[in-house]
Each structure stands twice: as C-alpha cells, then as structure tokens.
Amino acid sequence: MATKLVLKNCFVEVDGVDLTCNVRSVEVMLSKASVEANTMCGPGNQHGLETCSFTINFAQSFDTGLVNDTFEPHWVGETAFTVTVRPVEAEPVSATNPEYTGSVKLFEYTPLTGSVGDLVETSINLPVEGLIQIVKE
Amino acid sequence: MLRKKKYRVIGSRRIFGNPPGKVFERAIPKDQERRLIDAGHLEITRKVKEEENGNEISS
Q1: Of B7, B14, B35, which to mutate for an interface test with A (greatest number of A Cβ within 10 Å)?
Q2: Do A16 and B36 touch (CB under 8 A)?
Q3: Contact assignment for A70 to B13 by CB distance below 8 Å
C-alpha cells in the first residue's frame, strides 16, 4: 500500500546551520522554462533553462546564531550560501528521503513583519544559482 | 586549496549534521568559517589554533 507523507520533521539546513526548529513551512520548486520550438512539421516545446528555488517560512529569531544571524550576513555581504532540505530529518538520505541542495543568494529579506500578538514570521525566497542537486544516497 | 580543520560545535544547533559538543573535521571556506564562529556555532579546536599560531604541538 502506498504511504502518504505528512510533514512533521522536515530537515532544513542553511549555510551549514540546522534551522529546522524555526521552520514553519518549506517549498522546493523545480522548474524549467518551456521554449517554443514550432516547426513546419507542427507545434512543439523544448526544455529551457532550469530555474529552481527554495521558499522557506521561518519563525523569526534574533537570538545569536539563529534565523536573522544566519541570513543578515548574506544580505549585507551579497554572498552565496548553501541550502539543504529533505523530507524527514531523522532518516538518512535515500531514494525515499531525497535531499535537495542548492547554492542560493538572498535578494529580498523581511526581517520583521506582523501585527500585535502575532508570531513573527519571515518568508524567504531563495533562487538557486545553477542546478539544484537531488541526492538519493 | 581548502585545508580540513577540526571544529567543535559549541552552540545549540547541529552544524553540518554534527550535534552540539561534537568535534568534527571539515574543510570550511574561510568566510563561512568566520560566520559560524562569529554566530557562536563553532570553535576551532585548541590543537588547530596552536598549529595556526606556529606553536609546537604536544600530543
């Protein structure tokens, strides 16, 4: 019988730091451009450039070494860093627990937003530079 | 070329999959090493510090 995955303990590592316990939601987006390649023999499309990204919603923390401390240096320094995500933290990387890794840059960062009484969250979109790696072993 | 060094995880979060308190060896780029040390995640083990300072190492 096929199993259905319920996200409970996704693994999220940013620049080597395990930020799993501050993650509210995560999205790994794999995308390739569709390039029109119509010919006299009929319509067609070809795969174009790959544009993948991670979108991670964090429960913000300004504590030493946590969310803001991890992202702010990359915002200031405009440096690339690595993001790694896999569905189940407690299990090793495998075909049934693939790990997605990419080198990303931070182009937009909202360190603080919210209303009175709200949990402070920050949603960060991280476009991947080059190709995303899908590791299965 | 990056050289492997020994680090100890001193913060509360796992670093490169290593739990707090663990000593591990890894080649970390200089700027990333600085960020991880400045953020209180890692320390370079004493032996590596002494090597970098050119001191004689006692085993």
Answers
A1: B35
A2: yes
A3: no
pLDDT digits (tens, 9 = 90+) for A8-25: 999 999 999 999 999 999
Within 8 A by CB and 6+ apart from A126, the residues are A53, A54, A55, A56, A83, A102, A104, A105, A106
The residue in chain B having the minimum alpha-carbon distance to the alpha carbon of residue A17 is B15
Residues of A with CB below 8 A from B31's CB? 77, 79
- The domain segmentation of chain A, as residue ranges, is 11-34+46-135
Q: Report residue A65 as tokens.
A: 């070494």
β pairing state of A53-59 and A81-86: unpaired
ipTM of model: 0.75
Provide the pLDDT for residue B56: 47
pTM: 0.85
